[in-house]
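tool_call: predict_structure(chain=1)
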Amino acid sequence: MRKDFIDGRQFHGLAEPDFVEKYWTDVWRQQGARKDLLAKIPTKPEYKVMAPVLDSLPQGARIVDGGCGLGDWIVHFQERGFDALGLDISRETIAILNERFPDASFAVGDIRAMDAEDASADVYFSWGVFEHFEEGLGPCIREAFRVLKPGGHLYITVPFDNLRMAIKAALSGVGKVAEPDLERRFYQWRLTRAELAAELSREGFEVLEVKPLHKRQGVLRSLHHEFGMSYDWFLTKALSAVIAPVVPGGVFAHMLMATARRPLESDTQDARPIG
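tool_result:
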């Protein structure tokens, strides 16, 4: 696991929960409401991975989004007839979502300690959230395990410590456990496929799949950071569209997506040694 940092000067003196809330409140405020988000959800690669399980769930099944951001996924699932709850640490964001979408369910919460009953969710998903706590992914994964029903599915994405990032770190001499100073603030963990699978297995999950996602975003970032090309240039976007389909995900994919399952009680019993 490798640490990423950001400029910490504007967040100096803030405890981690306050920093995380302020940072993401600012992000969601800048992005605002986008009318195209709901329409795009079924086309997203994350959704396509989830689809077989979602299609097998009955109406009213409980779905939890840990770190719901702009709330589009929860609105979509609520419209599909699921009992969907979106949690986010940003109080301002949740207040706006509750006003904008009064028929959907949103609540302020820390996903390391949720106000939810044990074994109450059929599906728990979280896009790019578990990595943002410096203590590691463990508390988020343990809490997801607690709230999922036996047999329930967990879907998460985290930043991928791909080959491109590993080479950059090696060339720059950045160590895996470099400590921040006053100018740098911990931002996120970046993981390999094996590391993410190990984190989930350690907390009791059955890991079904770990796959790279979002190659085009990774190519865009490479063109920007290594070649100085602006994200907004037409040429940058065109090159990324051409390059992404033919390059390996292990080199350029920006995120990892893990699919995991809380074992059934019978699975746990079967795994116990005899005698």
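agent: Strands lie at 2-7, 62-66, 83-88, 105-108, 121-127, 148-159, 184-190, 206-213, 255-261. Proceeding to next step.
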